[in-house]
Amino acid sequence: MIEDKELDSLINEVFEHYGFDFGNYSKASLKRRVDRLYQLDGFSHFYEFLYRIRSDEEYYKRLIEEVTVNVTEMFRDPSFYAVLRNEIVPLLATKPFVRVWHAGCSTGEEVFSMAILLKEAGLLHKALLYATDINASVLETAKKGVFPLRMMKLYSENYMASGGTEDFSSYYSANFNIAKFNTELSDKMVFSQHNLVSDTSFNEFDLILCRNVLIYFDNNLQSRVIQLFDDSLSLLGFLALGSKETIKYTGGSNKFVQLRKEKIWKKIK
Amino acid sequence: MRRRCKLLIIGGSAGSLQVLINILPKIVLPIPFAIVVVVHRKNTYDTILEDLIALKTMIPVEYVEDKTVLAPGIIYVAPSDYHLLFEDKNTLSLDGSEKVNYSRPSIDVSFESAALIFKQELVAILLSGANADGTKGMQTIQEEGGVTIVQRPETAEIPYMPEYAIQNSNPDFIFTEDEIVNFVNSTIQ
Fold first, then answer.
1. Which intervals hold domain CheR-type methyltransferase (chain A) (predicted)?
2. Is A197 helix (H, G, I), strand (E, B) or coil?
3. Domains delineated in chain A
4. Distance in Å, alpha carbon of A145 to nearest chain B alpha carbon
5. Residue in B closest to A243 by C-alpha
6. Chain B contact present for A101, CB below 8 A
7. What is the C-alpha to C-alpha distance for residues B104 and A71, in angstroms, rounded to an integer?
């Protein structure tokens, strides 16, 4: 495993050369991800690795892609989607226009899941789903709305477990080994690059989903991001986090009230 | 001779739950170390495993979330679908990256992370299982000066995991359930 001081020098180099700040990322996870890439690409000395990052911008992009975690699935954690479907989406129905932000959307599986929920509630026509990530290459994948066909069995099961009653395969067309989701869904999506570490609020939303992103940040950065979400939510808007994430270690927790034990918070002031 | 320990970490897979339920209630309290359990569990979001362990032992069991504070005298169980890491000696963190050894949580991932943080103040136990997870982690723990214990394969419901660890690392001890309990109660503090 790489040394702590090596990781620190990498964080400094990346910040100096590219302005990207890993300084408030969770050290344990970041170290593992960096070490994995270092081993995978067969470097024998850490300074070679640093030199490559510094001198080769394409390699820097690879670093960002490999170090940030992009594991996601449609309707991941079906019980969460059931609560969203049964309790949150009906509240959005009263709005003239519904704005949703997927912060850290990765390859877009959860954005398409949300679009399906909104469509089934008859709200998609008046909704806009903003999907952002720091990683440009995952956004390219997300925009296409094309996912591996072999995943559809699991996604279909997740969809049904979350309370879906339609024929899940009606949402995509299968072609060889890919499933292309209907453009009716993606027409309502806007994808753009956004860095939660350094970028500011860009709109006001009724629902923000940021699931399994904060786990990679330390408490200081988590507080910053919760403040950013607070700035970006309408009053009585909702914030949804991952199944093991919490806002209790951040400064903004007094502005939100949690929905029972669900990972959904309502902004109350 | 007693050995200073801040963390007792226990890894297991198929056949390990019964061993845990036999061992944990026999640990004499109070304990000056935290206990972390990493077992392969179904990919569901329930807390059946935590509740079962809590029912069987007097040691409090805490549900693990991101950045949960790690304190002595408490059992923490790695939640399903996340790798469990150690941020520092007092803080747990979670990681949703790719499965390791077909597992998330992976025992190797938690063992390696614990080894780097706790060094000599770590005792690790690897129990029954049908997979090679845990062995790499045991190697790192040895390099960092921690103590490694493997369940005696003849006493394991599924001996593959402890056997694999014995063949590919050099564990300090190969113990039956009773010997594990005895070691924890008499040797570590």
1. 1-269
2. coil
3. 4-68 (no CATH), 78-267 (3.40.50.150)
4. 22
5. B45
6. no
7. 12
